[in-house]
């Protein structure tokens, strides 16, 4: 009797695990199919555009559908926003400036719509032992889409020496353009055996500062390379926590 109960229980767990896997696969398939459909709709309406990434969602309480897309045009990329018109077709309502991009580019861009905001995510890799991601967050305000915040994170595995465990380091920057506050952070510690993530205790430090932006950013004047240049010249926005776990300012030219 007990043996039959155990076998029945194991079968139930196996069926549940298989069901969850199928649901996860269906969900991923649905997301990919929806993105393919969005790309097709935009490219049919605007034949000169090639859509690299696309996402849809609500940007206001009205629940109207908007589409954010990354368009590739002659070796460059731009962020675009579309709104569903009355005939359900995507209508272009905003575009960013262009930035260089091609199939061989090591940056990996993506776009999302979540919590009534548009996020442009740009990731890069330094090879085996480092990587970084920057997110640019835009929120609709009337007919414009101002930049309300950025988050940046990076990781690296640092070789200490022979017979000494590698060190794993994570750094981050989170800037709120509405409150004009920025937080710089760093966590470091012994790397796990595979070299990724931490193994045991870590040291952590952060610094919260105010900054004064010298420009107003929105999708219509946005280029992520130019924004990076702007950050590098803005006191407090530019800076990091060093290996002594102390905040270090950028050396900013007055030119």
Describe the structure.
With 255 residues, the chain is of the alpha+beta class. It contains 2 helices and 14 strands; from the N terminus they run H-E-E-E-E-E-E-E-E-E-E-E-E-H-E-E. It has helices spanning 2-45, 224-232, and strands at 50-58, 65-73, 76-84, 90-95, 99-100, 108-114, 117-125, 130-139, 147-158, 167-176, 181-191, 198-210, 239-241, 247-249. The strands form 3 sheets. Strands 6-7-8-9-10-11-12 form a 7-stranded antiparallel β-sheet, with no helix packed on it. Strands 1, 2, 3, 4 and 5 form a 5-stranded antiparallel β-sheet that branches. Strands 13-14 form a two-stranded antiparallel sheet. Strand 10 and strand 11 form a beta hairpin. It starts with a helix and ends in a 6-residue tail after the last strand.
């Amino acid at each position: 009797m007990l043996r039959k109960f155990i076998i029945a229980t194991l079968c139930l767990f196996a069926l549940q695990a298989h069901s969850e896997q199928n649901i996860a696969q269906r969900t991923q398939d649905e997301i990919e199919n929806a993105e393919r459909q969005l790309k097709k709709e935009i490219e049919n309406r605007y034949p000169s555009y090639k859509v690299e990434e696309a996402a849809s969602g609500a940007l206001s309480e009205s629940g109207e559908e908007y589409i954010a897309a990354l368009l590739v045009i002659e070796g460059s990329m731009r962020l675009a926003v579309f709104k569903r018109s009355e005939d359900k077709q995507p209508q272009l309502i905003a575009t960013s400036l262009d930035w260089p991009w091609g199939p061989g580019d090591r940056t990996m861009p993506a776009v999302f719509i979540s919590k009534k905001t548009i996020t442009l995510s740009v990731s890069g890799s330094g090879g085996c032992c480092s990587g970084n991601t920057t997110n640019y967050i835009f929120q609709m305000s009337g007919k414009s889409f101002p930049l309300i915040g950025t988050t940046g994170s990076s990781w690296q595995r640092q070789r200490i020496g022979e017979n000494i465990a590698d060190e794993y380091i994570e750094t981050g920057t989170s800037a709120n353009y509405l409150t004009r506050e920025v937080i710089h952070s760093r966590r470091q510690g012994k790397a796990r055996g595979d070299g990724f993530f931490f193994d045991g205790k870590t040291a952590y430090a952060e610094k919260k500062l105010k900054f004064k932006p010298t420009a107003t950013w929105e999708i219509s004047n946005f280029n992520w390379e130019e924004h990076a240049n702007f950050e590098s010249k803005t006191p407090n926005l530019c800076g990091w926590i060093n290996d002594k776990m102390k905040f270090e300012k950028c050396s900013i030219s007055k030119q």
